[in-house]
């Protein structure tokens, strides 16, 4: 990749971040990755999960599961080579750092784990039949 192309990609990603949105490829419970835009200014872990919930329920209206865990590919530069490791977001600081770590990249890869609420599990149970 030429230096001018690297600079162009950096500036493009920087502009995207400045307007407050970044591209994400999210894989919900191991299904096909979905592309979406996520608001990245003033983000908290809860607001990121809410955005992912909203997107998932828009694509899968009957899916009542909620986002429980979010992992992303964290880039690491070592001896001129970029490598990636999966990291779980556990707090607001992690969420903010994730966006700054990806300023040079066109998108963020995420793996999202959806879980059912306790209420949904109880509603889905079949009551036992009386054995009289």
Question: Summarize this, please?
Answer:
This protein is of the alpha+beta class. 37% of the residues lie in helices and 33% in strands. It is elongated, with a radius of gyration of 19 Å.
Structure description:
- With about 130 residues, the chain is an alpha+beta fold.
- The chain has a domain of about 90 residues.
- The chain is about 35% helix and about 35% strand.
- The protein has a 5-stranded mixed β-sheet.
- A hairpin with a 2-residue loop joins β3 and β4.
Annotation keywords:
132 residues; 5-stranded mixed sheet; 37% helix
Compile the SSE list and pairings.
Blueprint: H1 3-19, E1 21-28, E2 34-39, H2 45-59, E3 66-78, E4 81-88, H3 92-101, E5 107-115, H4 118-124
Parallel strand pairs: 1-5
Antiparallel strand pairs: 1-2, 3-4, 3-5
The helicity comes to 25-40%
The number of E-state strands comes to 5
Average per-residue pLDDT, rounded, comes to 81
Output the structural class: alpha+beta
Helix and strand element order? HEEHEEHEH
Q: Segments where pLDDT lies below 50 for 5+ residues?
A: none
Counted by DSSP, the helix tally is 4
Give the N-terminus to C-terminus distance in angstroms: 76 Å
Strand content: 25-35%
In the sheet with the most strands, the strands line up as: 2-1-5-3-4
Radius of gyration: 19 Å
């Amino acid at each position: 990749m030429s230096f001018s192309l690297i600079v162009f990609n950096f500036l493009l990603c920087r502009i995207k971040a400045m307007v407050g949105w970044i591209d994400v490829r999210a894989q919900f419970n191991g299904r096909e990755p979905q592309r979406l835009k996520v608001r990245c200014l003033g983000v908290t872990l809860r607001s990121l999960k809410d955005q992912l919930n909203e997107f998932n329920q828009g694509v899968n209206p009957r899916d009542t599961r909620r986002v429980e865990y979010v992992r992303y590919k964290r880039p690491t530069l070592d001896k001129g080579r970029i490598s990636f490791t999966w990291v779980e977001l556990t707090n607001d600081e992690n969420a903010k750092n994730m966006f700054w770590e990806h300023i040079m990249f066109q998108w963020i890869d995420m793996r999202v784990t959806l879980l059912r609420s306790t209420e949904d599990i109880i509603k889905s149970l079949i009551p036992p039949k009386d054995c009289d």
